[in-house]
């Protein structure tokens, strides 16, 4: 008996379907805090001064950047946060024309979105990442084993790894200034320093009201969309914009929290040991068929 690769995968699919019969999986429940802190970023106000980058470096004691903060030529290339920079500003030209009939830039602040139901937290097998009541997705270096599953899980591609530190490397990302918020009652460094008030810090519910108020108060200016209100179940960082989000680097993401899919599948597969038993049964059948085939071929050769 010969089992093809397609047949083997099909058998595994049947085993998974059997294991996921109704009643085996527990209903998924959101772990999002009811009204965490968050930040609202108004892209129509940001001027790309990079003051938020500078404040982030000072609060988190990060290394000096390769390009000084007052050198705006760094905006000529698109950047991502990394292990030495938890937030960056990017510049886009989405086609908007200013009063001088020139292309007007739009500046976008990028950092960890601190999702309501974070995929990185769900993927972390040691509990090194947790969603706190104040809204921060908090990282505990003492629990991290460097598996980097969080990096693969994050829909925004934010967590960075210290590949240049072979001894005790860490996963690095925006901390939401956790200590300042939780113990000092302050704001994140970036929200405190913004000279044009493009970043507003507060409770997520109040920020949503503020965002809707601005959109409804000036519908000719703002796009009727609060990015982060529903994306991947909602995020603590929210954005409003006077240009389409897809033109300034924002991904189009589903509203369903990613852990809702992955954790439901896991629960269905492993509840009552159905999945391991089904998998071992399929593997046993494959091994038995392969063994009989080899024995037959050996007899023919003899």
Automatic annotation (TrEMBL):
Ranges for domain 4Fe-4S ferredoxin-type: 37-65, 103-134, 135-164
Transmembrane segments: 269-289
Binding site for [4Fe-4S] cluster 4: 124, 144, 147, 150
Keywords, in A-Z order: 4Fe-4S, Iron, Iron-sulfur, Membrane, Metal-binding, Repeat, Signal, Transmembrane, Transmembrane helix
Residues annotated as binding [4Fe-4S] cluster 3: 112, 115, 120, 154
Cofactor binding note of this UniProt entry: Binds 4 [4Fe-4S] clusters per subunit.
Cofactor(s) annotated in UniProt: [4Fe-4S] cluster
Sample GO molecular function, one term: metal ion binding
Pfam families, alphabetized: Fer4_11 (PF13247)
Keyword Metal-binding appears in the UniProt entry: yes
Keyword Nucleotidyltransferase found: no
Sequence positions that bind [4Fe-4S] cluster 2: 56, 174, 177, 190
Residues binding [4Fe-4S] cluster 1: 46, 49, 52, 194
Signal peptide: 1-27
PROSITE patterns per the UniProt record, alphabetical: 4FE4S_FER_1, 4FE4S_FER_2, TAT
GO cellular component: periplasmic space
Localisation: Periplasm
Domain of life: Bacteria
GO BP of this protein: cellular respiration; formate oxidation
Subunit record text: Heterodimer of a large and a small subunit.
Protein name as annotated: 4Fe-4S ferredoxin iron-sulfur binding domain protein
Organism of derivation: Pseudodesulfovibrio mercurii
């Amino acid at each position: 008996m010969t089992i093809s690769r397609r047949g083997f995968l099909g058998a595994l699919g049947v085993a998974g379907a059997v294991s996921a019969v109704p009643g085996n999986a527990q209903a998924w429940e959101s772990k999002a805090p009811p009204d965490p802190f968050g930040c609202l970023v108004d892209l129509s106000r940001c001027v790309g001064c990079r003051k938020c980058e500078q404040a982030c470096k000072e609060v988190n004691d990060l290394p000096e950047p390769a390009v000084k903060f007052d050198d705006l030529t760094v905006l000529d290339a698109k950047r991502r946060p990394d292990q030495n920079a938890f937030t960056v500003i990017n510049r886009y030209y989405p086609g908007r024309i200013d009063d001088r009939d020139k292309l007007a830039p739009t500046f976008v602040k990028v950092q960890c979105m601190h999702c309501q139901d974070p995929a990185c937290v769900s993927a972390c097998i040691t509990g090194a990442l947790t969603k706190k009541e104040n809204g921060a997705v908090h990282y505990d270096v003492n629990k991290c084993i460097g598996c980097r599953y969080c990096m693969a899980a994050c829909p925004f591609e934010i967590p960075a790894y210290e590949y240049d530190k072979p001894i005790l490397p860490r996963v690095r990302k925006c901390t939401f200034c956790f200590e300042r918020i939780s113990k000092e009652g302050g704001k994140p460094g970036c929200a405190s320093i913004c000279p044009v008030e493009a970043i507003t810090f507060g409770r997520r519910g109040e920020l949503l009201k503020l965002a809707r108020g601005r959109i409804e108060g000036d519908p000719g200016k703002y796009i009727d969309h609060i990015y982060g209100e529903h994306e991947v179940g909602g995020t603590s960082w929210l954005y409003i914009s006077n240009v389409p989000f897809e033109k300034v680097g924002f991904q189009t993401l589903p509203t369903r929290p990613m852990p809702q899919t992955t954790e439901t599948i896991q629960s269905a597969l492993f509840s009552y040991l159905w999945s391991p038993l089904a998998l071992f049964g399929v593997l046993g059948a494959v091994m038995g068929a392969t063994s009989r085939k080899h024995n037959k071929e050996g007899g023919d050769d003899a």
